[in-house]
Amino acid sequence: MKLATLRLAGPDGADGATRAVRLDGDVLVDLGVPDVGTLLAQDGWAERAASATGTAYPVAGAAFAPVVPTPSKVVCVGLNYRNHIQEMGRDLPEHPTLFAKFADCLIGAGDPIVKPAETEKFDWEVELAVVVGKAARRVRGAEAEAAIAGFTVLNDITCRDWQFRTREWLQGKMWDSSTPVGPYLVTPDELPGGVRPSLDVILLVDGEVMQSDSTGDLLFDPVALVEYVSTVIRLNPGDLIATGTPGGVGQARTPQRFLVGGETVVTEIEGIGRLENRVVKEASA
Predict the structure, then answer these.
(1) What residues contact residue 90 under an 8 Å CB cut-off, 6+ apart?
(2) Quick check: 12 pLDDT over 70?
(3) CA 13, 104, 232: angle at the middle one, nearest 5?
């Protein structure tokens, strides 16, 4: 099952109204709630979503909001692909490297990525993101697996010059309106490997392949990350865990290469979906 949060078009959508929808062929079926986050907070959400028969909207021309517009938390994992760890000159970590983003960072699958005027090192990172489907605290094994509603695509856009100002990464990762996520939440039953999916990931800038790998190369898999993160803090329905990026980021290239504005960035994961975002320079104040 593929779920999304659709922005309504026309007068009804003028106030930013959205609807949770299920992909059904070439239409999106209304699930009766405003967004996927609201859906996941309901008991029996999967059965409700599968059986809904609401208004059908065409997929063609659809405008997607972030798949979960207002998660209570976005936990991100750094240094989780072996080749990316090596290109950044680091040792394999014993534990997941965690940082955070916030709902204000998130944008939709086709929205512009806003490049802040304050950065000269604006970088890309294709990532598989876990979407949490039920409350979880200190879960292990089958309980951790059951907490995974599905997966989506995330581009962890990073201001590298700000990231490396200090030993803590947060200030390079939390920029407003910078992080595309979506378009779909895909349930594990539709993916090879289920809650530990093995999927091709790719990122292109103006048609040139920058990153290409498989989620099978993850050092800490999605279930292990749910176990680890839920030990520290409770996970709520709709929370996101971005699982890390493979090699090929601009920071590690020789010469280094960054987004300057005007590029089109395509971020795609096999079986889940595609983000296509134009990089735009932030308007002067």
Answers:
(1) 79
(2) no
(3) 130
pLDDT band at 113 (very low <50, low <70, confident <90, very high): very high
Distance linking the first and last C-alpha atoms of the chain: 43
**Looking at this protein, which amino acid is placed at residue 241?**
I
Mean pLDDT of 238-246: 97
Domain boundaries, the chain: 2-64, 74-281
Angle CA(154)–CA(245)–CA(269) in degrees, nearest 5? 50
Q: What is the CA radius of gyration of the chain?
A: 18
Contact 278, 113 (CB under 8 A): yes
Q: Is the pLDDT of residue 270 over 90?
A: yes
* Measured CA angle at 44 (ends 39, 47), to 5 deg: 90
d(CA 112, CA 30): 25
Which tens digits make up the pLDDT trace of 155-206?
A: 999 999 999 999 999 999 999 999 999 999 999 999 999 999 999 999 999 9
pTM: 0.94
Of 285, 114, 271, nearest to 189 by C-alpha is 271
244 φψ region: left (φ > 0), alpha (ψ -120 to 50), beta (else): left
Spell out the residues 6+ positions from residue 203 whose beta carbon is closer than 8 angstroms to its own: 124, 125, 126, 155, 209, 210, 211, 212, 248, 265, 266, 267, 268
**Fold category of 74-281 in CATH:** Fumarylacetoacetate hydrolase; domain 2 (3.90.850)
Contact 107, 74 (CB under 8 A): no
